[in-house]
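Could you help me review a protein record that somebody else here produced? Do not assume that whoever made the record got everything right. The record follows directly below this note.
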Amino acid sequence: MVAYNQSGDKLYEDAVRAVCSAQRGSVSLIQRKLRIGYQRANHLMAELQRHGIVGPKNGPHHRELRMPKSIMSQYAIPRTSQEQACGGDSKAATHTCVRTYRSRTWSLTAYLLVLLASFITWFLTSLYYESIGR
């Protein structure tokens, strides 16, 4: 297999999958797809270049893919139906889709904001009624 991980980075295979699915390689692509910082994405891109998966940096353009098409197609295909539901993002499909997690987070945030607004309304109403003597 061409994608051999000697660096020990857990996201190496995900980076290979992201580059193959997009048919292009760049540090910003890896950052967006894997939701990681610049340094780690740059390190992963250097590893991909060292293993011959992508070519050297070509100015502002994306790096060319040097992986054979037969191997590239193995990585470009989503592995499970849950990955397909998550748009082919294997990192997001470990247990649940990131979109589902984010929607749950926003739902919880909205619930807490409504609860806070209700409490503030109740508190201000009680202060008003105390000030008028009821």
Summary: Residues 92-98 have pLDDT under 50 and may be disordered. The chain is about 60% helix and 0% strand. The chain has two domains: 1-93, 96-134.
